[in-house]
Amino acid sequence: MEDETARKHIVGYKTDLCTVKTTFLFFTALYLNLFSMGQTVQNQAYSTLLHTPQAFPAGNPLGYPIIGLMSGESIEFHFDIMENSFETYSYGVIHCNHEWTPSDLHSNEYIQGFPSSQISRMEPSFGTMYNYVHYSFSYPDEMST
């Protein structure tokens, strides 16, 4: 009799624990979803080693980094990393609305090709007081338009 009561108590405890876990996971997922929906894209450097970021139309370093859609033009991006070693960096494109929050569009709705790529143009500094590596890439490139 005691074994039967103990078994019911343990089974009831496991059921209650599963309900608590399920409820916790549901509210965690709901919170993360609501929290991420209103996030704006921040214009910030994610490393203190990054210096001199530049963006301009290809071949026009004094121009504004604006190009027409499907125009065949591209934007050049340049930056320096204040280290003497080469690192592999990637970039990606996120479509945002007028409030700089990510839109609901899937990447294949605004990009033909790959939405991200690795930066392959790197140049080490030469004859400078501080060692750095200069990185540059153009977007869109041959892998995305």
Could you explain how this protein is built, in words?
The chain is α+β, with helices and mostly antiparallel strands and 145 residues long. The protein is globular, with a radius of gyration of 25 Å. The protein starts with a helix and ends in a 6-residue tail after the last strand. Mean pLDDT is 76; it is low at 6-36. A hairpin with an 8-residue loop joins strand 5 (121-124) and strand 6 (133-139). Helices cover 25% and strands 22% of the residues. The strands form two sheets. It has a four-stranded antiparallel β-sheet with strand order 1-2-6-5, with no helix packed on it. Strands 3-4 form a two-stranded antiparallel sheet.
Compact description:
The protein is of the alpha+beta class. It has one helix spanning 2-37; strands spanning 50-57, 75-81, 90-92, 116-118, 121-124, 133-139. Strand 5 and strand 6 form a beta hairpin.
Entry keywords:
145 residues, alpha+beta, four-stranded antiparallel beta sheet, two-stranded antiparallel ribbon
Please report the distance between the alpha carbons of the first and last residues: 74 Å
State the order of secondary-structure elements, H for helix, E for strand.
HEEEEEE
- Coarse morphology: globular
Q: Main sheet: which strands, in order across?
A: 1-2-6-5
Low-confidence residue ranges:
6-36
**Major β-sheet annotation:** 4 strands, antiparallel
Please give the number of β-strands. 6
- Specify the helix fraction band: 10-25%
